[in-house]
Amino acid sequence: MLIGELGRRTGVNPHQLRYYEAQGLLVPDRGGNGYREYGDDAVLTVAQIRKLLDAGLSTQEIGYLQPCVSGTAPALEPCPETLDLLRARIAELDKQIDTLVRSRQTLREYQTTTERRLAG
């Protein structure tokens, strides 16, 4: 199928599909006319990429995990490299959450102080 058809079947615009190709996540064949030609398996690959992006993984991380990905959920094969990457990503998220919680608390303190000064 051509890129337009893949886009229709996956709901992903051709620009994004070309980006996935540039990142090495999606590998089309080239027809004699130079057009990208995708097999039916590309629909599953795009679905996996989208779900992993939704989980907060980068395209680089997805490329690293891609050989261990199967199914539409997708499922990840339980290998040490996969777990190391997931643990590292979760640790990064935990740090970001901690920073956001501290920022929220500081802003609330500023808000409370400002409201007291306004009222008093």
Fold and architecture overview:
The protein is elongated, with a radius of gyration of 21 Å. A hairpin with a 5-residue loop joins β1 and β2 (36-37). The chain has a two-stranded antiparallel sheet. A two-stranded antiparallel ribbon has the order 3-4. The protein is mainly alpha-helical and 120 residues long. The protein is 65% helix and 7% strand.
List the helices and strands and how they pair.
Layout: H1 3-10, H2 14-22, E1 29-30, E2 36-37, H3 41-54, H4 59-65, E3 69-70, E4 75-76, H5 80-119
Antiparallel strand pairs: 1-2, 3-4
Give the structural class. Answer: mainly alpha
Radius of gyration: 21 Å
Helix content: 55-70%
**How far apart are the termini?**
70 Å
* Physical arrangement of strands within the biggest beta sheet: 1-2
Average pLDDT reading: 94
Number of strands: 4
Question: What sort of overall outline do the alpha carbons produce when their principal axes are compared?
Answer: elongated
Low-pLDDT parts are none
Order of helices and strands: HHEEHHEEH
- What kind of sheet is the major sheet? 2 strands, antiparallel
SS element count, helices: 5
Strand content: 5-15%
